[in-house]
Amino acid sequence: MLDALTDKFNNVFRTLSGRGRISEENIREAMREVRTALLEADVSFKIVKDFTEAVVQKAIGREVIKLLRPGELMVQIVYEELVNLMGPVDTRIYYVQPPPTVIMMAGLQGAGKTTTCGKLAKYLVAKGHHPLLCAADLQRPAAVEQLRTLGAQLGIPVYTDDSKVAPHGEVAKGAAVSVCRAAIAQAKQTGRDVVILDTAGRLHIDDALMGELREVNTQLKPHQVFLVLDAMSGQDAVNSAKAFNEQLEVDGLILTKFDSDTRGGALLSAKMITGKPVKFIGTGEKLDALEEFRPEGMAQRILGMGDILQLVTEAQQKFSQEEAQKLQEKMEQGNFTLDDFMAQMGQVQKLGSMDRIMKMIPGMSQLTKQMNMGDGDVERQMGRMKAIYNSMNKRERKNPDLLDGTRRRRIARGAGVELNEVGQFMKQFEQTRDMMKAVGGMGMAGKMNLMKG
Ligand code: GDP
């Protein structure tokens, strides 16, 4: 995700940090490179120009050139401007009384609208809601079927009306509105508090499509309208967003396919061009691959600074309360053993592919690159760590200080790894243990600061 952009930014900052002092010309030169990087990422020209100019002005205003280590402040300024470009964003969904809250989803065919309906429904269930999905893309039986399948997978009811589906002809006027209205009525009867409308999508924007969406919008007055856009399609996505937004009162954008090789243009241009913020991003085909969008986290990721808060949020969702509690106690008591270390690794693996996690940890995306670790290498490394752990006996695991040279050699043989890998493994464990001790000793307030920092 946005790797090319991150690489370019890192190069620019490396050059700037390499200098003791910098001149205004150095800053302008660096911004020329940033400008190229952003244009290559398919950000619109005007935005790029305004962005780089804002950075230069801020840098001059804050007297970056007088500093001994100007690079750090430059990173900070670019970070702030990236956050300004994408935010502010309020990802909260406002629920109405009496229920149901009606959410309308719009977007071009293939953008990922139907999948995102499923993801959003799952997201709402996790927050304690009871959504109902409504299949209102009546021209495409496949879309109706797809939503039914998603609903079945998630155990969430789907309202459909096959008698109104018209694959080969015009969808009857008012049919989409009547299907949506019936879904809302059903939600009321069955106690579902949110209705998600999967409306029509076409390959291109046309009058018929817009007419149908406008009709749903004006007659049913959905409480929120989300526009689903394919981040891979860059400026095209933003342009179609503009067109949709002129016809519907869009509340927020959802950009999909962030796991693919997107260049970032859509994300960085969307807010400025449409005036509407990106509220969620889709990061995979699976139904849990939906993230609330936080400009701060995204700016950190773009600048290769990681996104710890996102990790913490996901960890809170996926680790069981009990496991988290246990770890907390261990931290406070300072008796962190190899068993805990491996258990923690297992926990971390629940967050998804290690490669993805590494990118969210500050500095790690650079490190894995420097070490030439590609996709899958981190997973393999985890496999080797497990093999080492499995080759130890119980006493050794409880008391790693026992591990002298002879024992380490035996373990390496057992695990089928080099002797120095056992050493590395132990070092990693010791570092984690030290960190745990430090964090454990800090008390709650200190830990909160660590997360914020
Ligand atoms: P619709 O025509 O807009 O309803 O699009 P679909 O929901 O059918 O999605 C089109 C394709 O995009 C499907 O193959 C989805 O699996 C895929 N897709 C949707 N969201 C994401 C995402 O966040 N990441 C990836 N990689 N694929 C996605």
Automatic annotation (TrEMBL):
Give the chief site where it resides: cytoplasm
Residues holding GTP: 107-114, 198-202, 256-259
- Which Pfam families does the annotation name? SRP54 (PF00448), SRP54_N (PF02881), SRP_SPB (PF02978)
Which InterPro entries does this entry report, sorted A to Z?
A: AAA+_ATPase, P-loop_NTPase, Signal_recog_part_SRP54_M_sf, Signal_recog_particl_SRP54_hlx, Signal_recog_particle_SRP54_M, SRP, SRP54, SRP54_GTPase_dom
Respond yes or no to whether keyword DNA repair is given for this record: no
Quote the EC number. Answer: 3.6.5.4
Give a Gene Ontology cellular component term annotated to this protein.
signal recognition particle
Its top-level enzyme class, in one word, is hydrolase
Q: Which CDD domains does UniProt cross-reference here?
A: SRP_G
Q: Name one GO biological process term.
A: SRP-dependent cotranslational protein targeting to membrane
SMART domains, alphabetized:
AAA, SRP54, SRP54_N
Please state where this protein is localized: Cytoplasm
Q: Where is the SRP54-type proteins GTP-binding domain?
A: 277-290
Keyword terms of this UniProt record: Cytoplasm, GTP-binding, Hydrolase, Nucleotide-binding, Ribonucleoprotein, RNA-binding, Signal recognition particle
Listed under catalytic activity are: GTP + H2O = GDP + phosphate + H(+)
List the molecular function annotations (GO) for this entry: 7S RNA binding; GTP binding; GTPase activity
Assembly with partners or alone: Part of the signal recognition particle protein translocation system, which is composed of SRP and FtsY.
Family statement = Belongs to the GTP-binding SRP family. SRP54 subfamily.
Q: Name the job this protein performs.
A: Involved in targeting and insertion of nascent membrane proteins into the cytoplasmic membrane. Binds to the hydrophobic signal sequence of the ribosome-nascent chain (RNC) as it emerges from the ribosomes. The SRP-RNC complex is then targeted to the cytoplasmic membrane where it interacts with the SRP receptor FtsY.
Q: What is known of its domains?
A: Composed of three domains: the N-terminal N domain, which is responsible for interactions with the ribosome, the central G domain, which binds GTP, and the C-terminal M domain, which binds the RNA and the signal sequence of the RNC.
By what name is this protein known?
Signal recognition particle protein
